[in-house]
Amino acid sequence: MSSFLAVFKLPPGDLLRDAVYRRLWSAILVSSLGGQITVLAIPLTAAVLLNASPTQMGLLQALEVLPFALFALPTGVLLDRVRKLPVFIGGEALLLVAIGSVPLAAWLGVLGMPWLYVVGFVIGIVNTTAGSAGQIVLTQIVPRERLVEAHAKNALASSGAEVAGPGLAGLLIKLLGAPLALAVDALMLLVSITILRGIRVTETLREGAQRRFWDELKEGLHFVRERRLLVSMAIVVAGWHVFYNAALVVQILLATRELQLAPQTVGWSYVAVGVGTVLASSLGHRLSRWMGPGPCLVLGFGICGLAWLQLSFAPTGPLGVASFALMLFAWGAGAVLMFINFLSLRQSVTPAPMLGRMTSTMRWLILLPAAPGALLGGWLGEHVGLRSALAFAGLGTLIMAAWAWRHEVIRSVRELPKPQEVS
Question: Global pTM?
Answer without folding.
Answer: 0.70
